[in-house]
Design brief:
The protein has 115 residues and is α+β, with helices and mostly antiparallel strands. The chain is built from 4 helices and 6 strands. Strands 3-4-2-1-6-5 form a 6-stranded antiparallel sheet, sandwiched between helices. A hairpin with a 3-residue loop joins strand 5 and strand 6. The longest helix is centred in the last third of the chain and has 16 residues.
Length: 115
């Protein structure tokens, strides 16, 4: 089970260079939230959504997405079927994040009102 509080803490303290991935055993996919999701889109093309429970954009990553990250980035930590922590080669920072996140939120809101 993914710990919501750990996700929020990690993203609040994200150094502008780290991608945290969390494994969801029910879906069989990794997920990245907030800035981690933003940084992941710079390397691969995951499915994007918005987590109402965590109030952050969420990237859903299939196996090929994780392989792209593994080939392109420095892996800092890894626990099998639990989580990954990657480090970008350069500090990206928050430049562009707010605009990107607002786009995700807007698309999510448009879809949510029809479901």
């Amino acid at each position: 089970m993914i710990d919501k509080e750990i996700i929020i803490k990690n993203e609040r303290e994200n150094d502008g260079q780290t991608i945290f991935l969390y494994y969801d055993d029910i879906a069989g996919m990794y997920m990245a939230f907030g800035q981690s999701a933003y940084y992941a889109t710079m390397v691969t093309d995951p499915y994007m959504s918005y987590s109402e429970a965590i109030q952050m954009p969420v990237a859903l990553l299939r196996r090929e997405h994780v392989l792209s990250l593994r080939q392109s980035l420095n892996r800092v930590e890894h626990a099998v079927r639990s989580y990954y922590r990657f480090s970008m080669r350069e500090n990206v920072g928050k430049a562009g994040y707010e605009r990107w996140a607002n786009g995700i939120i807007t698309r999510h809101g448009q879809i949510a009102k029809y479901t």
